[in-house]
Amino acid sequence: MGDVMANFTTHIAVGTVVSGALATLTLAANVVAPENLVAVTMAGVLGSVLPDIDLKDSRPSRAMFAGLAIFFSFAVLFTAATKFSIAELWILWLGTLLLVRYGLHMVFHRISVHRGIWHSILAAVFCAVATAVVFQHMLNKPAGVAWLGGAFMFVGYLTHLTLDEIYSVDVMDTRLKSSFGTALKFFDHRHFYASLGMAAATLGAIVVSPPTNTFVDGLSSRSLWSGLEQRLLPPDKWFGLVETPRMARRNDDDKATGVVTGSVNQGAVTENGSDAGTLISEPASTPEAIPSPADTPAVSVPSENASP
């Protein structure tokens, strides 16, 4: 691989594939509404490029701070809408936008190091919890959906870190590059205070995060996994055209044993004349014997002169 590194296109392509696979499982499990599934899938795609926020000239960094600038500028505008004149609101809005986009961006990259704390599992946990907080408190999503978005973010983030480590292995020269081990790590041992700050931020995010009961109960449900297992492969034919090996073996076994499933010979008649297609046959009714006059006992009629 030489000095080739996983670039933005590679990260977002692989992240999209991984998030799409997770979205397919989530949709098959029927645990979230389709409109919420789009949001959690986008969280996974965002997570697949987010670690490069510590790279000053990277597209994720520019996009992240541009998004933060837009969010905070409008938040200030709506908060101060009734307190200042239109001209003052323009100044506040534009000033906040420029301050966050360029000022905060510059300060952040002066104190951050590429492949530092943002390339760590601790940062992945922080971003996952922060995603859950944003989903619930800003997007008004239920707690279960919020943590599902956090889970997608975490998987996408780990996908990025794993790709960085894979690209740190030079297969052609059978050697490890100097960057190996700098991405997929629990924390940045080279910058202790940065790791300490990230740990504190993670704890703070956990304090305001939504409850996890709904998400954990749903994820540990036996019916969820049994349903996914049943839907993992088609029961008979792929796309209704190609027969699955399991179905083919079942048909071969049926032919070998002479069992024809789902067929009843409606026209066959047994020796006693009953229809073989009838599961339960009622016995033929026997005509009731009519007694003869000889068998009928005589009834005596008393005479008129008989005494009572």
From TrEMBL:
Domain of life: Bacteria
Biased composition (Polar residues): 260-275
Transmembrane segments: 12-31, 65-84, 90-108, 120-139, 145-163
Pfam families: YdjM (PF04307)
Region (Disordered): 250-308
Example of a GO MF term: hydrolase activity
Keywords: Hydrolase, Membrane, Transmembrane, Transmembrane helix
Protein name: Membrane-bound metal-dependent hydrolase
Naturally occurring in which organism (per UniProt): Hyphomicrobium denitrificans 1NES1
Taxonomy of the source species: Bacteria, Pseudomonadati, Pseudomonadota, Alphaproteobacteria, Hyphomicrobiales
